[in-house]
Amino acid sequence: MQKGRSLLFKLLKNIFIFAVVVLICELNYCSFALADETAQNDAPRQYVTQSSPESREDVPVDKTWTIKFNQPVDLSSAQNSIKVVNKETNGQVSLNISLSNNGYYVNVSPKQSYALNSEYILTVDSNLKSRYNRQIKSNFSMDFRTTLKVVSVNDMNVAISQGDNYTLPTTVAATMSDGTVKQVGVVWSKSVNTQDPPGTYVYQGSVEGYDKPVNLSVTIKPSNKNVESVASTSMWIWELQSEVDSYGGIDALIQKLQNMGINNVCIKYNEGSSPSGGGTNFRDDFLKYVGDFRRNGFIVGTWGYNYFNYPESEADIIVDALNNSDYYVFDAEGDSNVAGVANKFDAAEQVCQIVRSKCPNAIIGYSSFPIASYHQNIPYSVFNKYCDFSAPQCYWKEMGWSVASCLDTMAREYKAYGLDKPIYPIIQTYNTDPADYDTYSGYNFKATGLWSLDSMGSTFEYYIGDRGSKFGS
Question: Which residues form the SbsA Ig-like domain (predicted)?
């Protein structure tokens, strides 16, 4: 029986040996693993133990050390047994010492900031006691050096082109208290959007230990892509296969367009997020004949009637269209939440953002109503932000307006609403007079879309003859 008590005493003694583990971290920025054998180790932790002390560099001057024990510590004992000494002056630092986590953690911070760029030693002597009146096995010490102070960070300027792949820097050059220049981490208040309209934008960041904001001016220049490379008279096509059949084959259709002086086609590619609509697979028909157009020197664009009901899926098919064509035009119409893009400002932003992020250098336009004030539920401003040109649908006969009233009102309203992208109108190829085309031609737009090959009337065909370029400037 006596031998059993002796074994039990030794076992308890081994279990309750008082030990210290120092966890190096900023207060409030670490999670702790328990020191005893029943701890759950969720992730690797960074420890400094009595057997493997390490020196710490670039320590903030207001650093709070957290020291962890396997028994709750007596506060008065900790205040007497824990010291920090400046190794250069041998002066003892006045400390704030407190307990947390039911006494298992001792928090050590200076009452006044440590000196910059100085060496210190933190010690825990063997007189430290737990609340169970047990002492730690041996002394512990750890060296550390404080960081230099950031004295200044110069304002910075950078210029990029709209759509560039650019992110704000993660470090900035800072002048330190000893006169050296060092890269230090910076956290910005917001990220940059390279699709923002051209202009200068100021971003502010913060550097730890520096009480002034870091300023970075980003100048976004207009995109250097050549939008005018697709600016010519373009024939729009809705159902390509039907037109191929109507003209007796793709070669005959292409010959017809060439005879009209047209070398630019804009062909339907999608219906919302789908490549198909009304029994026609627009994407398949386009891919079937796009090579024929290109072999004959055509500029080949795509367009789609947009819904934005499934933004990610619709963005994906638009990206696919851009990968297979020279440009893409959003057909942004509709006067309800079901048909078209009306009232879908957030979805329009999401689609345009995805498309631009994946195709930053693509040429993209949008086509919508010419009188913007009549259709304020159309997200004109979103399209103007992300697109390179506008193609308002100036169908004056359908509107019951004169050519001049339609075009002049369109121009005034687009300007009033801040829609500042180049205007390449789309005009109707049916139910109008040669005199109207003469009036339109006098406006000398750089490019004109013709709606459409599917509905082209004999009056238009006779008027244009072999001079498709007559609609351009």
Answer: 47-146
